[in-house]
Design brief:
This protein is an alpha+beta fold. It has five helices and twelve strands.
Amino acid sequence: MPSILVLRFADSSPGFAAADVDVPDVSVPDVSVPDVSAPDIAPRWLLGAATAICGSAGDGPSGREPFSVGQRPGATWRLGWLDDDAPPPNWPPAEVRFGSRARAVAGAETHRQSYGELARGLPVRRVRLTMTTPTFFTRDGHDLPLPDPALIVRGLLVRWNGYAPAPLRIGAGDARTLVGAVGLAGLWGASADVELGHGLRQTGFVGEAELRLLAGTSDYLATMFTALARFAAYAGLGERTAYGFGAVDVDLALVTELAGMPVPRPARPATTAAPARAAAH
């Protein structure tokens, strides 16, 4: 089932070395840009470390890895597991090797939620996503270092439907309608360039994006929106999430969870409104 493994190391935290961080000249209260400046762990080493723990890369749907990688403040590292089966037997490892350097694990925490649990709960209509590592998307063959709502939702739909049990998968019609019903309510952050080696860099976004559902969106679609938002903490956002890009914290606005009590899924409406805009193919 979807799981997050948080590892604590005795030494400094593995993460990116940012070649450049471009902080906009704006004043935004209570919003900080995550530190992506040190230490220098190449994305390929992050992938190699995660693969050694989780298994061969590219085993997921469409060749995607069934895991995501993210750094956390302090000497911590986070792995997300997406498969509906049990996490890998190597969780948690005694050490993690980044390139030629092995780091002993000083402590570990595992957090798990089934796809059914992710799909239950009161639906929300607004969510704040905090991208703690550089995040980028692909549109028309080009990289986009900005959190586009349609690309966020489409990416999460692909991963959700690739790993969730069949009864919980979201159909094509509902997916198109949901993509058209999500808008961007606010954006705060900066761009950051990550060194890839051999003179190459990857630009991504770090900061916060607030997504909202359009007025009049049904509770039926809002429940799917909420499930995907919860799932983002496990799956990450955008491209190259197994290389450490796109790690995200999720804040569901104005929601009270009923601990241990399943919340009935809203009944599907008799008719579904036409999508605000069709999903790109």
